[in-house]
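#lab-general

N.A. 3:47 PM
ok so I finally got the sequence cleaned up, no stray characters, all 161 residues accounted for. can someone with queue access submit it? mine expired

B.Y. 3:52 PM
send it over

N.A. 3:53 PM
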Amino acid sequence: MFTHVLRFTAPFVLSGFIASAGLADCSPTTAELRGLWGQAQFQIEIADTNESRAQGLMHRTEMPRMSGMLFLYDSPRPMAFWMRNTLIPLDLLFIAPNGEVLAIHERAKPLDETHIPGPDGSIAVLEINGGMAETLGIKAGSQIRHSFFDQFSTSWPCNAS
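B.Y. 4:20 PM
back already:
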């Protein structure tokens, strides 16, 4: 189902993963993030229909370490998520059309139905394993690269290195 890949711009070891220089070209199943902390690559599933967004990561008991789900919308909008029927803790990265991470909700609690609102201007949300943003150092202001964002004035397009 998923393979896990972690790559940074310089040789680096993190929790038993050996990372190498450079990142692969854009792929529909890959989301790359970068910031002052370095770079990381996640193998992702896409949720871009009402049905797939409603299902999300519900009923899963685990997710591979460097994996996630990217929720995509047609335009920026107010949005809120919850953890109904979600069995694993998650970090939610709210993303602007230019690919900038606007905010991060860390370690959303499994099965909690409290709404987790995103900031205005969000067009996408990347859900990754809870605590991964802190482990890697991902912060608001980090950038994401995925082909979805190329239709906007993204700061890190797929054809850039």
